[in-house]
Amino acid sequence: MKRLLLLVPVLLVAGSALAQRTSADPALLEKIRRLDLAHAQAIFRSDAAALDSLMNDDVSVNHPTNRIVKEKKELLGLIKQGVIRYSAFERTPESFLFFKDMVVVMGGEVVVPAKGAPNAGQKLRRRYTNIWLLQDGKWKLSVRHANNVCAGN
Predict the structure, then answer these.
(1) Are the C-beta atoms of 80 and 94 separated by less than 8 Å?
(2) How many Å separate Cα 144 from the centre of its chain?
(3) Phi and psi (nearest 5°) for 75?
(4) What is the residue extent of each domain of the chain?
(5) CB 54 within 8 A of CB 35
(6) Per-residue pLDDT of the chain (153 residues; tens, 9 = 90+)
């Protein structure tokens, strides 16, 4: 219990250093919304050039196929192999959290994997979190987590 009490002030200080901005710049909100939706479209179209420009080289994805993809090269390889391919892909961003040089986007997705991909033909509902970082003046997708929602939830 004593250790927990000592840890609480440390967490509070660390949390305040990364404190979320209370108000978002409307232009930045719109820019990140467009980037987030462009990422979904690029995945849907298997557009490697667009994905290359939207993601950091060391992007990490906690993928709904229960694996962690640790770099852009590997992710683009999965797209080329048809592991990541969809006949339908709809993304709905719901929440934007703004931090210094970082924006977290959370929302929902409805996807239908294409023939040859895992879960082909099934309509899957997902929850997702995308983390966009400002690096060298450009916003890049750096971390993504997407998980399938179990039926009935």
Answers:
(1) no
(2) 3
(3) -65, -45
(4) 23-148
(5) yes
(6) 554 444 444 444 444 445 565 457 999 999 999 999 999 999 999 998 999 999 999 999 998 878 898 888 888 888 888 788 999 999 999 999 999 999 999 999 999 999 988 889 999 999 999 999 999 999 999 999 999 998 765
- Integer Cα distance of 115 and 85 in angstroms: 8
Q: How far apart are CA 90 and CA 43, in angstroms?
A: 11
Candidates 3.40.1190.20, 3.30.565.10, 3.40.50.2000, 3.10.450.50; CATH matching 23-148 = 3.10.450.50
Write down how long the chain is: 153
Alpha-carbon span 97 to 25, nearest angstrom: 11
